[in-house]
Design a protein that fits this description.
The chain is an all-alpha fold. It contains 8 helices and no strands.
Length: 212
């Protein structure tokens, strides 16, 4: 419970702070301008503006992803009569932010909550049969997420190849755990923009940043 609470607080904190930094960028603009030497000011402004543009599209995509996953699961569970379907759908949508592991965690918790809720209504419930039935909305949402939402969000919003993103997330997960996986794409996007501005003479940098 403690680990779950910390993860949820961290996710909401990151989204909340990032949203207002992107919304009210003048605060960061003034701080960056005051700390940057004049000869690098144009490059830093370009980095900041491009990063804000990429991350804005990324976070909008994340919100859309959460909304679609939540809607699919909520509707599916409501059809089979699960109480608190909206809460379970929201919980699964939020956990879906965590790449690869999130859907498994959200699905496990969501199905457990669905079964528990239904047992209160029908104590004689066949748990195995209902568990398989409740699994369907999560499976449908996950298929949509894997084949439609993630390629659009990760590839289109941050302009990186899906395989590239996959490797980055795995590396970040091994270094920073769940939090590293959550922060992997935004940090990688920022580093690509910095590399493009300051190290564009290297072929490897040109290859990684040609689409941004």
């Amino acid at each position: 419970i403690s680990g779950l609470s910390s993860t949820l607080i961290a996710i909401f904190s990151i989204l909340f702070i990032s949203f207002f930094l992107l919304k009210d960028g003048s605060i960061v603009d003034n701080v960056v301008a005051s700390l940057t030497p004049d000869k690098y000011l144009d490059k830093i402004k370009t980095i900041f503006n491009d990063t804000k543009d990429l991350l804005s599209r990324y976070f909008i995509g994340i919100l859309i992803q959460i909304g679609i996953v939540m809607t699919v699961i909520t509707i599916g569970l409501s059809i089979v009569g699960v109480p608190n379907a909206l809460f379970i759908g929201l919980l699964a949508g939020v956990f879906n932010i965590i790449p690869y592991l999130g859907p498994l965690i959200g699905g496990s918790i969501g199905i457990s909550l669905a079964i528990t809720s239904m047992l209160e209504v029908d104590p004689g419930l066949n748990i195995i049969t209902f568990g398989l039935l409740a699994l369907i909305p999560f499976a449908v949402a996950q298929m949509m997420d894997n084949f439609v939402l993630q390629p659009l969000i990760f590839s289109k919003s941050v302009k990186a190849h899906p395989l590239e993103i996959f490797i980055v997330i795995l590396a970040a997960g091994s270094l920073g755990g769940v939090m590293g996986m959550i922060l992997a794409v935004p940090i990688y996007s920022f580093l690509r923009i910095v590399a493009r501005e300051f190290f564009n003479g290297y072929k490897v940098v040109q290859g990684l940043t040609k689409n941004i």
